[in-house]
Amino acid sequence: MTDERIVVGVIAGAFGVRGDVRLKSFCATPEDISAYVPLWTSDGRVFPAITISGQTKGALIARVDGISTKEEADALKGAELLADRDRLPSLPDDEYYHADLIGLPVHDSGGTLLGHVRAVQNHGASDLLEIHAPGQRTTVLLPFTREAVPTVDLAAGRIVADPPEGLF
Fold first, then answer.
1. Is CATH 3.40.50.970 what the domain over 98-161 is classified as, yes or no?
2. Tell me: the pLDDT tens digits for 10-45?
3. What CA–CA distance (Å, rounded) separates 115 from 107?
């Protein structure tokens, strides 16, 4: 693991008038976000402690050290929260941090470059790799399943895909 940071959540706005925030966690167990402190924003602000106090629709309710008013919480709406990578748990062989996949080249089983991973999306059913193909204006959404993506080789820095017929 390196000393880079990975996005683990985002502040979704204020909750109430005492500085609590609505916090969307990207962790497998949402409450685990508080274990990865200190958390950072992209502009370098540091939050040394986060206390989860409850849940609301689609988000956690949290008290973030350093935020004490509704106005301060509202000003941080949309701020991504990053954790030091070395604070995050190691993953099993068949699981990946999205940050590790973004930017990787995607080749078909014959070795032809299909594009590069621009983002990893999830709209409820399963993850999708958003692939930007060379010379294309739009991206292609590739299901991130064993059938469509049989090989992810982080050490070699590549993905091998077997996309459904006609996708590319």
1. no
2. 999 999 999 999 999 988 899 999 999 999 998 989
3. 7
